[in-house]
Amino acid sequence: MSRVILKIENDSVVVIVPTSIDNEKDILKSCIDCSTIESSRLQKDRIFRNAWNINGSVNIEKAKEIWKNKIRTTRDKRLQELDIKWMKALERGETKLASSIASDKQTLRDMPDREELQNCKTVDEIKAFWPDILKG
Fold it and tell me: Are 31 and 80 contained in the same domain?
């Protein structure tokens, strides 16, 4: 079964399931930037849906930005946890521990711009980039 993919504001796409051949033709006539694609060619993984192109492929640069935002969301939670640990370490005079925590915090801040992510060429490579410091 075919789908119509059309571009909307902010370069996102919408996938429409036509109800009939005539409906599909009407949709195609009324949109400027759209195409028909077989449903089997649609990306299975919807994590990067806002990076889809109307031909069914994925814009890798947009996918990286989506992944960076996912990293930032997780990172921000970890930073809050580390802020508390850092302050407690300072209060107790544990300067080595505070220094180690500060180093971890900087690593987290730098995470979205890591070269390993910038060098990714495929969606699978992007998804494989999830450093241990973000886990748990």
Answer: no
pLDDT tens for each residue of 79-127: 999 999 999 999 999 999 999 999 999 999 999 999 999 999 999 999 9
Torsion of CA 10, 52, 39, 124, to 10 degrees: -150
CA 87 centroid distance within chain? 32
CB 11 within 8 A of CB 49: no
Question: Same domain for 64 and 128?
Answer: yes
The token pair at 40 is 């089997």
- The tokens for 5 are 């993919």
One domain for residues 64 and 129: yes
Q: Give how many domains the chain has, as a whole number.
A: 2
Phi, psi of 34 (to 5 degrees): -150, 165
User: Taking a C-beta distance cutoff of 8 angstroms, is the pair 85, 94 a contact?
Assistant: no
pTM: 0.75
The answer to whether the CB of 2 falls within 8 A of the CB of 37 is: yes
Residues 81 and 45 in one domain: no
Q: Find the domain containing 115 and state its range.
A: 60-134
